[in-house]
Amino acid sequence: MAYLYFPTPLKLTRRIPLTFVRRTEREYPRHVLTTRTMNREDVDDYCQAATAFEASRTINPSSTGRTIALLFFQPSTRTRIGFEVATVALGSHAIGIEDMSASRSNRRSGETLEDCASVISRLCDAIVVRHHETGAAERMAAKSRRPVVNAGDGWNEHPTQALTDIFALRRGLGTLRGKIIALVGDPRGRTVRSLVNLLRLEAPKAIVFCPPDHYPIPSDVLFAIAEYQIPYRIIADVEQALVESDAIMMAPYDMSDIGEHAGSDYVSPSTTPESHRVTAEKINRTNSKTLIYHPLPRHDEIDPACDELPNAMYFDQVRLSKFMRMAVLNRMLTPY
Fold this sequence. Notes:
Low-confidence stretches: 1-26
Radius of gyration: 23 Å
Strand content: 15-25%
Number of strands: 11
Helix content: 25-40%
Distance between the termini: 27 Å
Largest sheet: 5 strands, parallel
Mean pLDDT: 86
CATH topology of the largest domain: Rossmann fold
Order of helices and strands: EEHEHEHEHEHEHEHEHEHEH
């Protein structure tokens, strides 16, 4: 118990107790680590909140003045800047280390992710982490006293990107129910896995994969589709997707670098075969109205000549990511 002392008019001293309200950890929604545990109500709530933030409605005071730690052990441009912008827009503060490879939370010094989470969660109100190891975010969440957002962990998941993708797809298509959604490029990526976990809630007519010949679709991705009895098929050329699908979510042809450690010598293949490239010529020749999305960065899988076509949705997808990440952070920081 703490006290303040005030002199009375009679110059007597009396003690007035101050009551400090301690927020327990259970007062707040917990971590955002995976899309597997999200239901339709969760996704609808996130999309509605993101729409409200886009319309510049009043910010929830629970989010103002808070501190968000951005721990990016793996390089990032859009996700990191997106979370920084979202944090500032909420009236909170974003802090972090520019180069996490220089911090003590790496292999050189031997500090564990668990210890890192224990320390940072005693200094900040939430943690956003990206790491090259699958399960890194979950390990940190197990020791964190504050909510943890998975901003990409190796080959595993990237839940806020998937929420952004659904938000953008709904914006472009109106609804995903009864639509054909094509996933073109490397099917092993964390963005694909998280997105499929949410597509199972949207009742699409079918999911179409256009993967490289040498990378099979992961079994857990196929299981998620089968569990909700969503038809799927595999095609060999993106031009077929431009003709048959309502929307295409592009990905790089090879994403082998996302699971590599910082400083790795691995270099992802730099050329996408013509069968997996979207070009303005293909769109015009097929008279395609298919909407084109991409979580970015792109390499050569979408020709820049597509950027000004009405099919191109990927840069607006980036714009919408700010509002979705505001929605995610705001929900985590708001008592329930």
